[in-house]
Amino acid sequence: MVKLNDIVLKLDQEFEIKSFGKDSAFSRFLPGVYDPIHFDWQQFFEKDFTQFFNGLMLRGLEDVEKVFLAVFPTDEVLERFIEEGTKGDLLFMHHPLVMECGDPRGKWGRGFVPIPEDYLKRIKEKDLSVYTCHVPMDYHQELGTNAAMAKQLGAVVTDGFLKNEKGQSLIYVCDIPAVPTDEIIAKLLKDYEIPYVDFEGKKQQEIKKIAIVAGCGDKVEWMKEAESLGVQAYITGEIHCHIDNDYGRHKYALMKEYAKETTMSLIGVSHSASEYMVVKTLMKSWFENHFSLPTVLLPQSQWWL
Known about the structure:
The chain has 305 residues and is α/β, with parallel strands linked by helices. The protein has 2 domains: 2-136 and 274-297, NIF3 (NGG1p interacting factor 3)-like (Udp-n-acetylmuramoylalanyl-d-glutamate--2,6- Diaminopimelate Ligase, Chain: A, domain 1, 3-Layer(aba) Sandwich); 138-271, Udp-n-acetylmuramoylalanyl-d-glutamate--2,6- Diaminopimelate Ligase, Chain: A, domain 1, CATH 3.40.1390.30. Helices cover 39% and strands 24% of the residues. It is built from 12 helices and 15 strands. It has a 6-stranded mixed β-sheet with strand order 9-10-12-13-14-11, with helices on both faces. Helix 8 crosses helix 12 (271-291). It is globular, with a radius of gyration of 19 Å.
């Protein structure tokens, strides 16, 4: 059993939560989904969370016996956490909201979706805690979303771009042993436990340089920058935006045009699966090593959503 405050302090320090200021994404998206439904998120969530949109989101009892690990707060993830968790247990996630990015072989998504109020109330009633870490984790060099993907691929980081003020790159450029596109795809299917990848561009027989960006890497300008650096395969969560609105359809059209001209292999493993890698590998070990706490992984039954 470990004190919640000790875990929160260690996480805040490890990810330098306050040094990043307001999360650039969720400081917009969280109010954007809760304000229209008149949910008083500023009173419901922890005070620091409503300022930084990272860190301890919901506070339960002080004594923590288990840590649950997930990416998105989907209904099935929250059901398992509430049912299997005991008072004081902690759920650590990358996102405080579900993001429906859409299925390349199925339905398009709705974008960001709020956690249903019933789940939030049940979490509080059971004295459970929730901690989320978004942008600080994306940039972390050892415990980051990209770092986990690079490690799983056996890639050596040689360069990067979209650097923050700390000099940390959002997108990694890496060297790998020469391998054809099809072998990379086969490894991704196995490692990420997904039924299929989203693919565009050209398949190659010898890929030595790749770019890695977890989550939504569906920005054509990022792909062009990677290609200018000699990247042969661009590996990300989402290569296409399948969000069912004007924004999503515009981005999708831009990407389809770029895909006709690029020489790269463009490979998506789903937003959620790409970011789940860091919690099921690096963060699981981190919690066990620092606090000797049992951890419970909460994978999604559907990665493309």
